[in-house]
Design brief:
This protein has 14 helices and 27 strands. It is an alpha/beta fold. It folds into two domains: about 350 residues, ANL, N-terminal domain (Rossmann fold); about 90 residues, ANL, C-terminal domain (GMP Synthetase, Chain A, domain 3). It has a nine-stranded mixed sheet with strand order 3-2-11-10-12-13-14-15-16, with helices on both faces. A four-stranded antiparallel sheet has the order 8-9-19-20. Strands 17-18-21-22 form a four-stranded antiparallel sheet. Helix 1 packs across helix 2 and helix 6 packs across helix 7.
């Protein structure tokens, strides 16, 4: 299946429309298309079979390189820049990738004749790292069709118009960041790059941002900032973890247009999302199923998904240059087992309860760490929370909480936290210890 590149189309129909907005410049669709063409010409001189790997940094050059990979039938492999050099090198050998630097590849390219602006929707478009139940990263791969269908379903629920601006505050080595690009470039909207010198609140007002994606911790930071009223905001998409009800209520009180969502790498981003102007009852769920997706709950309360958004599989190690050795474990009738747990409420909305691989079984009782984390994050004093299991000779397992706080974790604050938990959770779900987050590595190295 072939599709004409939307960026090339908009470069002709509306060349001066903003495609990428930074703190210093505006890249129009015409400018972006020229950069993509320039890089595509260079990529076409390289061996066809090698994926293009780079350290991701959400720059204009990286976006142009990514799209040039799509146009020239190359596999884009953006990776976390925090990875150590030895791990980056192992990924290179595992995937037979060519390592490049986006800035250098644009500078070293030369403008020449126009390259094809056709997109092969069936081609493998990206390699992305995702963690499985073992926690060991796996290389997942997607086609352009996966991305476009996922974005189209999202746009049906949260439409974009050319004047909209979506903040790219999720990394491009994650489907969440790639999804923002796809939604904007299908709609002739603009992507706004983060400015590390500005708070999110300031950047929203300065760049007239209409849409943002965030995890609950980022929403908490936004709500803690002085300016909470942002008239340009049309949608705040919250995912990545369950959002505490107290935080949702606070966002509603500040009239933030929030949506809650559930998604995963293997489904190329969103699966369910709440509707615009949803009630707090709906926002405490992950919303309803988006179009072109299927979802069901198994007998063990595991969430199963399928549909045209479903990725193509995981890459096994050391592929032959001209072949991909892959695997994709599905049920007999084609369902992908997510390892997430949940249920469907009486109105057909998805409620996430946790993950099978994080489940703590204590004295025969099931404890979901996500529920404890969500309850802790509802306190203004707590900035982040991670709950892990520890062995207990009597109960088998017990939870321990590691938290970061705005002020030092004093005994008085611990008592306040325990009081907060007493009001919201049964005693057996209380963490046996509440420790500062910096102790998590020390504890788990013992």
């Amino acid at each position: 299946m072939i599709k004409h590149c939307p960026i090339a189309q908009f470069a002709k129909s509306d060349p001066n429309a903003p495609a990428i907005i930074t703190s210093s410049i505006i890249i129009t669709y015409k400018d972006l298309n020229q950069q993509i063409t320039q890089i595509s010409n260079y990529l076409n001189t390289l061996p066809k079979y090698q994926p293009i790997q780079w350290k991701s940094g959400s720059s204009t050059e990286e976006i142009a390189l990514l799209w040039a990979c799509f146009r020239s039938n190359r596999i884009a492999f953006p990776i976390n820049p925090k990875f150590p050099p030895s791990y980056i090198d192992s990924l290179k050998h595992q995937t037979n990738s060519l390592i490049v630097t986006p800035q250098d590849i644009l500078t070293g390219s030369t403008t020449s004749t126009e390259t094809s602006a056709q997109l092969n929707l069936g081609q493998t478009a990206t390699y992305l790292l995702t963690s499985g139940t073992s926690g060991h990263p796996k290389v997942a791969f997607h086609t352009l069709k996966n991305y476009i269908i996922n974005a189209s379903g999202t746009l049906y629920n949260i439409p974009l118009i050319p004047s909209d601006r979506w903040l790219l505050n999720l990394p491009l080595y994650h489907v969440g960041g790639l999804g923002i690009l796809m939604r904007c470039f299908l709609s002739r909207a603009a992507v706004v790059l983060p400015n590390p010198t500005m708070s999110i609140s300031t950047l929203i007002d300065h760049a007239k941002i209409s849409h943002i994606s965030a995890i609950p911790t980022q929403l908490k930071i936004l709500l803690d900032e002085e300016r909470n009223h942002h008239p340009t905001l049309h949608a705040v998409l919250i995912g990545g973890a369950k959002c505490p009800q107290d935080l949702i209520q606070k966002a509603i009180d500040f009239q933030l247009p929030i949506h809650t969502t559930y998604g995963l790498t293997e489904m190329t981003s969103q699966v369910t999302t709440s509707e615009p102007q949803a009630s707090i009852e709906e926002l405490t769920t992950s919303g309803s199923l988006l179009c072109d997706r299927e979802l069901k709950i198994s007998s063990t309360n595991e969430i199963w998904v399928k549909g045209p958004c479903l990725f193509q599989g995981y890459l096994t190690s050391h592929p032959h240059p001209y072949e991909k050795t892959t695997y994709l474990a599905l049920t007999e009738d084609g369902w992908f087992q997510t390892n997430d747990t949940g249920h469907i409420d009486s109105k057909g909305r998805l409620v996430i309860t946790g993950r099978l691989d994080r489940l703590i079984i204590s004295g025969g009782e099931n404890i979901h760490p996500e529920e404890i984390e969500s309850t802790l994050l509802a306190m203004d004093e707590i900035q982040s929370a991670i709950v892990k299991a520890t062995f207990d000779p009597k109960w088998g397992q017990r939870p321990i909480a590691y938290i970061s706080t705005k002020t030092p974790l004093s005994e008085a604050l611990k008592k306040k936290i325990i009081s907060h938990l007493n009001e919201r959770l049964p005693k057996y779900k209380h963490p046996d210890q509440i420790l500062p987050s910096e102790m998590i590595n020390k504890t788990w190295k013992q």
